[in-house]
C-alpha cells in the first residue's frame, strides 16, 4: 500500500546496525513455553547478536540448547543477547570476528567443541547489504565484501563444522525473499541470497547419506538492524507496507522457522526453504 507508514522514520550511520537505538525495539522474545526440542544440543548462530539471530539464539536456549553467538563487532548487542540466553537457564559463548575469514570460522568450530564437547546445529545467518540504484554503482570492493560475508562465510563455517556434526545434525541457512523475486536496489545482496538457496539444496543432497539435514529460511521484510543502517528514513517508515499483511515482520516471527528446521519436528525435510514473508507468494 504506497504511502502507508509502518514505522517511525529513523536511520543509523554505522554498519552493521545496532539494535539498541532502534524504535520500536524488535521483538525477539520467544512467544511460547519451551518443550525441550533441543535439549542437550549445542548450536552455533552467526549474526546472533541482534535481529533474527538474537531471536533464534534465545528461542534455541528456551528449547534447551547451549548457544554460541558469533558476531562481527557489536559488543553491546551481543552482551544483551547472551544475557537473554542465560535468563532462559542455558549457557552461552560469544565470539567476535569476521565469518568471511576462514581461519576465524575454524576457530569458532574448535572453540565450540572445546567448550561444550559437541556441535549439533549450525545456523548460518550473518549478512550485510548495501543498496545501490544501479549496477554501475557497485564496485569490486562492495561486491567482494557482500559475497565474502553472505555466502563465503556460509561455506567456511559449514566446512569447519563438518568434522563435528554427526548423524541427526542440522544446518539452517538464512536466505531471503529477494532470492526468489529479485531486488532492483540490492543486486549483489539478492545474488548472494540466490546462491544460498542453491548451496542449501546441493549440500542437502551431499549430506543426506550422513543423515545431516540442510534447510533454509527465506524471510521477507523483517524489522532488524539491517534496515535502519542501510535504508534512508523515508524508506524505513514504509518498510513492509507492500506485502499482503501490510507490516514488517518481527524476528520472533521468523525464529520459529529456524527452530522447526533445527529440531526433529522436521526430520523428513532436507533441501527445503520456509517463507515467513508476510504473504508474498514465491516459487509458483
From TrEMBL:
<dbReference type="InterPro" id="IPR002347">
    <property type="entry name" value="SDR_fam"/>
</dbReference>
<dbReference type="InterPro" id="IPR020904">
    <property type="entry name" value="Sc_DH/Rdtase_CS"/>
</dbReference>
<protein>
    <submittedName>
        <fullName>SDR family oxidoreductase</fullName>
    </submittedName>
</protein>
<dbReference type="Pfam" id="PF13561">
    <property type="entry name" value="adh_short_C2"/>
</dbReference>
<feature type="compositionally biased region" description="Polar residues">
    <location>
        <begin position="7"/>
        <end position="16"/>
    </location>
</feature>
<keyword id="KW-0560">Oxidoreductase</keyword>
<comment type="similarity">
    <text>Belongs to the short-chain dehydrogenases/reductases (SDR) family.</text>
</comment>
<dbReference type="InterPro" id="IPR036291">
    <property type="entry name" value="NAD(P)-bd_dom_sf"/>
</dbReference>
<feature type="region of interest" description="Disordered">
    <location>
        <begin position="1"/>
        <end position="37"/>
    </location>
</feature>
Amino acid at each position: 500500500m504506497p504511502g502507508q507508514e509502518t514505522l517511525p522514520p529513523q536511520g543509523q550511520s554505522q554498519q552493521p546496525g545496532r539494535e539498541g537505538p532502534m524504535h520500536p525495539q524488535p521483538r525477539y522474545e520467544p512467544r511460547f513455553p519451551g518443550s525441550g526440542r533441543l535439549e542437550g544440543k549445542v548450536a552455533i548462530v552467526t549474526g546472533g547478536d541482534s535481529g533474527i539471530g538474537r531471536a533464534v539464539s534465545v528461542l534455541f536456549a528456551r528449547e534447551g540448547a547451549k548457544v554460541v553467538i558469533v558476531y562481527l563487532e557489536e559488543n553491546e548487542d551481543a552482551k544483551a543477547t547472551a544475557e537473554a540466553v542465560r535468563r532462559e537457564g542455558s549457557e552461552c559463548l560469544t565470539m567476535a570476528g569476521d565469518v568471511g575469514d576462514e581461519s576465524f570460522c575454524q576457530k569458532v568450530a574448535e572453540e565450540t567443541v572445546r567448550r561444550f564437547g559437541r556441535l549439533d546445529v549450525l545456523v548460518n545467518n550473518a549478512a550485510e547489504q548495501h543498496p545501490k540504484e544501479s549496477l554501475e554503482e557497485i564496485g569490486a570492493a562492495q561486491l567482494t565484501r557482500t559475497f565474502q560475508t553472505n555466502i563465503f562465510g556460509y561455506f567456511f563455517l559449514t566446512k569447519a563444522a563438518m568434522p563435528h556434526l554427526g548423524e541427526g545434525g542440522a544446518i539452517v541457512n538464512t536466505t531471503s525473499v529477494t532470492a526468489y523475486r529479485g531486488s532492483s536496489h540490492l543486486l549483489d545482496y539478492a545474488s548472494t541470497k540466490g546462491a544460498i538457496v542453491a548451496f542449501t539444496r546441493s549440500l542437502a543432497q551431499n549430506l543426506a547419506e550422513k543423515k545431516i539435514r540442510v534447510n533454509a529460511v527465506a524471510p521477507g521484510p523483517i524489522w532488524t538492524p539491517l534496515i535502519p543502517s542501510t535504508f534512508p528514513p523515508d524508506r524505513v517508515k514504509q518498510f513492509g507496507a507492500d506485502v499482503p499483511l501490510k507490516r514488517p515482520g518481527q524476528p520472533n516471527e521468523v525464529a520459529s522457522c529456524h527452530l522447526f528446521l533445527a529440531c526433529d519436528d522436521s526430520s523428513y525435510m532436507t533441501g527445503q526453504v520456509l517463507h515467513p514473508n508476510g504473504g508474498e507468494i514465491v516459487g509458483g
